[in-house]
Amino acid sequence: MKVFLLKRLFYTVLMLIGISIITFTLSHVVPGDPVLTMLGGRGTDEQIEKMREDLGLNKPIHEQYFIYMKGLINFDLGESIRTKRDVTADLKNFFPATFELSTFAIILSIILGIPLGILSAVKKDSWLDQGARIFSLLGVSMPVFWLGLLLMALFYNHLHFLPSSGRIAMFIMPPRDITGLYLVDSLITGNFDAFWSSLQHIILPAFCLGYLSTAQIARMMRSSMLEVMNQDYIRSSYSFGLSEKLIIFKLAFKNAFIPTLTIIGLSYGSLLSGAVLTETIFSWPGIGRYVVESMLFLDFPAVMGVTLLIALVYSLANLFVDLLYGFFDPRIKYDEIN
Amino acid sequence: MEKENNLDENEILLEVKNLKTSFFTYEGEVKALEDVSFVVNKGETLGLVGETGSGKSVTALSIMKLIPDPPGKILSGEINFNGENLIKKTEKEMQDIRGNQISMIFQDPMNSLNPVFDVGTQIKQVIKKHQRKSSRMAKKIALEMFKKVGLPDPEHIMGKYPHELSGGMQQRVMIATALSCHPQLLIADEPTTALDVTIQAQILKLIKNLRDEMSSSMLLITHDLGVVARVCDRVAVMYAGNIVEYAPVKKLFKNPSHPYTEGLLKAIPRRESRGEKLKIIKGKVPNLITPPSGCRFHPRCEYKMDVCSSTIPPRKYIDENHYVKCHLQF
Amino acid sequence: METTDTLIDSWLKKHESKIKEFKYTLHLISKSPLSMIGAFIIACFLLIAVFAPFLAPHDPYYQEMSARLEAPSFQHPLGTDDMGRDILSRIIYGSRISVLIGIIVVSIGAAIGIIVGAVSGYIGGAGDNILMRIADMFLSFPPLILAMAIAAALGPNLRNTIIAIALVRWPVYARLVRSQVLSIKNSQFIEAIRSMGGSDIRILFIHILPNCLSPIIVRATMDLGTVILAAAGLSFIGFGAQPPLPEWGAMVSDGRQYIVSEWWVAAFPGLAILFVVVGFNILGDGLRDVLDPRLRR
């Protein structure tokens, strides 16, 4: 177990280094020049030269990289070209919103996707199954940005039912910052107005963002449930007279859930990066919107910061999933993986 | 000798009458069981023998009403258990019978146990279901059963997962679970086939002893006539979805009346015939979508007559306990 | 005549099992209504792309300022956008862009992936380890952000969109092919060929890769949908195809501000994306059900 954890952490670090190299290289083959962008395309040669020096852009690329990595060890991601603030501070500012949105979305997908997949498998070929399969098919095929627009138009503009953008209503003070997650903070502080408003604000973007993973989870759950129900041990459970309810929801479920768990881990990663589109549409003040704006300014310190953070969270989520395996599947022996 | 005397007096536990089961697949209707009839008396063991694909397991699953539907379906016949027709029972009523009055053990113990639950949980839930016992009582019964089937250190085994046990131990767990509610009928579907040869005899002996001890009846499915000779009171020989001969074991071995039975017996290696070439039955099991007309065995039969390919042979009772489905007997 | 007949007969006999298998596959495909619907959608989509100039009622770039944001009518079946361009015609022409992106990206991605995966699986050992670590790295890179970064760095246009998405997609194929190669590599029939002196390259290309074909086809079919979605997403946030190209995602983005009253500007291009992606997904699902030996019966 210890060996496994160490190995995984080692790979995570290796991966982060690789990702930083890719992004760093990208940022330096840019035909577009951030300095020019910052100066608005104007500026004398001296001004440009001075700025380059300030930003350390005139040193050879590998030197720049080592300077960057040295900073990284101290959680210093450099300064954003666009906001002129420390990238670390910006991330601290924007990440909780994204974390709240994607975590809410994955919880929503699990709550919706798993029962849907099970029912679909148990009532195979019934109208319920057909309906669930069409729902999932649309989910994996849906352009999220388009769905977001339609939902917003429907619920906000026509039904006046849900708010369209932001994390909380303008006239409500956000809860005191404890975790940075409005839903959690407002509950802790007992601020139910803030909680209700945040909930109303998160529901549309979370559904929009989580629809894809709901669909993926439901599809995986259905197919692995169907496979498990055909296994000998399920037949022997029937032969012992156990009730169908027990067999489906406990005995088969635990087996079928294992492959679904993988999908959940992978989904969480794609949620974080899918947040880019959702946050843009719903004006959600998270790192997705932050990274889009940074890209437009060729603000590569900020882009690198976001990329590394998302990759880190993604691998931590998958490590967590791998650890959960052990709970569901007794056959797993961690130290034999890889 | 004592056994043979019992035969006539015994009460009937299970009576299968004209059972017909089919599977409806892409290629067509697989007529897996054409006309299966036999009786299992209380306290007796009936051996069901035949080649792979002859319909032994389908017979067992039909009795349990566990034929996967679709594609399978029991088309007609009766399965009378304690005088009640199981075919008429609802799924809910069957659940109270399965594992409680009729239990089954399967060929492949590795795949018959749920891989993600410890074996203690698996046996306890069966006991809880049928005996309405508390968890503590269920555990006590489970431990007793584990001891009975010869598992060493039952307390320790309870917490083990199937993959941590050997094949023989897995099968012992299955047997313990199947017998935990003292069923009147135990169906054992080739219970030793998947095990090491050295373990096979042990497991067989265990099943036989436990059956005697609990005075249950047993339907033992096997392709090994040697096993039948050691364990069974009566034997039903299956071929291509039919029982072609049904007789007390000794009579069958002494006086096989169906050419197929005869062929099977000749294919057993014997001490007397050492050095001789073993006889085999030519040909192979027919395709059950388009089974041979008349007697399904006629294409492989040494004594084939004209009538064999045109008419299905009826049951001919040689005596009360012995019937054959063969035109030679008329 | 007789000899040809016997030749045909003997050929039929020799390949009897394969022919039976093939017939069965066809039967399964025709029996699966889903894959038929998928195939139908994709066929329509391809035909529209090929015959766009003949099908489009208007010039997709012609701006008719007097007819801005017109609701669907007989003249403009799907309405006009904020520059007075006919939306139906733009969608019809836009299908060409989506086909192009889809096919090129999947071909590049699959080609890189197949080579890397095959080599990796076949050589094994340290080389395998390194290649797979690289693939893992690309897999754990947030895909949309990598694509955005590439597009931002190289400049947002169609070609860079293609490069960006292909760079994100290849590891999927590499993993798939590697696992297939690993499972086939040690099978007895490859062992037999090797013992008869087959060379590595020959074994890999003649014997192993064809056996990986059906999962690759299934994967690629589904991937076409994913790629089209990704490209549309990139264009939507401004890192893909640039105006005035009638790219569907960009069109949705154009219609964004009008979604409340002039909903058709954004709604129809999005619907087109949804349709095509659904088509590829159900075709992929259907093919998987048919080609996967575990699901066949």
Distance between the termini of chain B: 30 Å
How many beta-strand elements of chain B?
A: 12
| CATH architecture classification of the largest domain in chain B | 3-Layer(aba) Sandwich
Mean pLDDT of chain A: 85
Shape assignment of chain B? globular
Tell me the domain tally of chain B.
Answer: 2
How many distinct domains of chain A?
2
Outline the low-pLDDT stretches of chain B. 1-8
Structural class of chain B: alpha/beta
Beta percentage of chain B is 15-25%
What is the structure about, briefly put?
The complex is a heterotrimer of chains A (338), B (330) and C (297). By secondary structure, chain A is mainly α.
Describe the structure using short key phrases.
heterotrimer, A: 338 residues, mainly alpha, MetI-like fold, 13 helices, globular, C: 297 residues
Describe the structure.
The complex is a heterotrimer of chains A (about 350), B (about 325) and C (about 300). Chain A folds into two domains: about 1-75, no CATH class; about 95-335, MetI-like (MetI-like fold, Orthogonal Bundle). Chain A contains 13 helices and no strands. Chain A has helices at about 1-30, 35-40, 45-55, 60-75, 85-120, 125-140, 145-160, 180-190, 190-230, 230-240, 245-280, 285-295, 300-330. In chain A, helix 5 packs parallel to helix 13 (about 300-330), helix 9 packs across helix 11 (about 245-280) and helix 11 runs parallel beside helix 12 (about 285-295). The mean pLDDT of chain A is about 85. Chain B is of the alpha/beta class and about 325 residues long. Chain B has two domains: about 5-100 and about 185-330, Rossmann fold; about 115-180, no CATH class. Chain B contains twelve helices and twelve strands. Chain B has helices at about 1-10, 55-65, 90-95, 110, 120-130, 135-150, 155-160, 165-180, 195-215, 225-230, 250-255, 260-265; strands spanning about 10-25, 30-40, 45-50, 70-80, 85, 100-105, 185-190, 215-220, 235-240, 240-250, 315-320, 320-325. Chain B is globular. The model of chain B is unreliable at about 1-10 (pLDDT under 50). By secondary structure, chain C is mainly α. Chain C has one domain (about 30-60, about 85-290): MetI-like (MetI-like fold). Chain C is built from twelve helices and no strands. In chain C, helix 10 (about 200-235) packs parallel to helix 11 (about 250-255). The longest helix of chain C is centred in the middle third of the chain and has 37 residues, at about 85-125. The model of chain C has no long low-confidence stretch (mean pLDDT about 85). Chains A and C meet through helix 1, helix 6, helix 7, helix 11 and helix 12 of A and helix 6, helix 7, helix 10, helix 11 and helix 12 of C.
